[in-house]
Design goal:
Distance between the termini: 83 Å
Largest sheet: 7 strands, antiparallel
Shape: globular
Strand order of the largest sheet: 1-2-24-5-8-22-23
Strand content: 15-25%
Radius of gyration: 30 Å
Length: about 500
Amino acid sequence: MTTVSDNNTTNGAGNDFAGDFRRRIGEVKKTRWIRFGIVSLIFLAWVAWLGNWWVALALILLFDIYITGYIPLTWWKKSKNATVRGVMSWVDAIVYALVLVYFVFAFLGQNYQIPSSSLEKTLLTGDYLFVNKAVYGPRVPMTPVHFPLVHNTLPIINTKSYLEKPSLPYHRLKGMRKIESGDIVVFNFPAGDTVMSKVSNPDYYTLVRSLGRNAVLNNEATFGQRIWRPVDRRENYVKRAVGLPGQRFKIADGTIFIDGVAQPMPENAQFNYIVQTRRFPITEEQWDELGVAPDDIHVMTDVMNNPAAAAANGFIVNDDSTVPPVYVVPLSRQMVTSLESTGNTAMIVRYPNTPGDFLFPEGPMSQTWTIDNYGGEEGILIPEKGMKLTITDENWPLYDRVIRVYENNPTARMSDGHLTIDGQRVDQYEFKMDYYFMMGDNRHNSLDSRFWGFVPEDHIVGTPWRVLVSFDKDKSIFSGGVRWNRIFLDANPDKK
């Protein structure tokens, strides 16, 4: 009796479910079936692009949302309380909007602000760009649980805008093409894995090199706490790709050489110049017309206040022992020509630079290099995926961080002139990713690969497509603060 009763109950429940299922489907309007069909096609196309068909199981959830409605997601529509219906309608709209923004930002593109002058005059401080992530293929988010409208920190409360777990391994979807020489690229700052919560610039590693680790870590009042960030939550940088995987890169007298061949200079590339006028200073209006921002104008008061030293160094000194104004400003070739045509300049010469203490890589290799003469006689070899290379004491400083940090071999060491990983000798190391050398067009005012090294492929975000809007921080909205001539301007004009 028990067995028969149980079978009848089960069959009855099954019949009830089947009948209810048929009823629900029968009540669905044709327009809702059309909407479900369109959404399903878009979803399946996205799954195919993603390359993971297990995700297609979510189609069951979409079917319930649009057709059967077993999950009561719209329970609030049947509420008798008008306040509940009003509030939940807003919540519903906001959630849908955030989900849409999440997918657009993650897989298609997003806006990005230019915070510094490293790419002037190609991109200006205050430009807001739309960054196309589909060109090189978007990364599947490595920290998938994050708030879509902020990058790594929630405003006001200053807490992380993401959860570190769950995390996904690096995977990039198929794009339209690979990075090409001359591309302007947005990427996550490679040295941004460790940051101090109160100081974003200079970065943690630069602070440690200049002040010492203990001075930084033991001064929480000034620098804050040390924070580790996953790859896709590191600060966004924008630079020009000047060296590609497998190429030999060097700079000689400001000119880039790839595999021994001189590369054309970008039209808007700038270098710092020493400018001395014949007598009168250059006015703010003249600098503005020339395109030099106030923050980029540096007056050499030490020269102007020492006529004897000025004369000894080739500067003009007036008969009354005064020195006409001397400036250091970043200029492009066209800007130099424009200044020379005014007839008010006595001197325009490239600013000399000396070997720097903070050039990449640290150590003896780079001690004689400068930002205009970089890479030595042969140049540096940029790692390429699948490339096998013998690691020596001489080239270890170039690839130390690449092997240990970016390619996750924390035990890698040089021992008796040989590379060891997990205690095992490695005669030739095979690189797992492609790497790039990035530089700004404002060559003397750009913290780029010359200072912190190669950019791994898993840090690549996308390429700027258009300038959405541009604001000049030195002007008010009503007096030229909006650069109307830059709206929807090509953000990568050197790429034909």
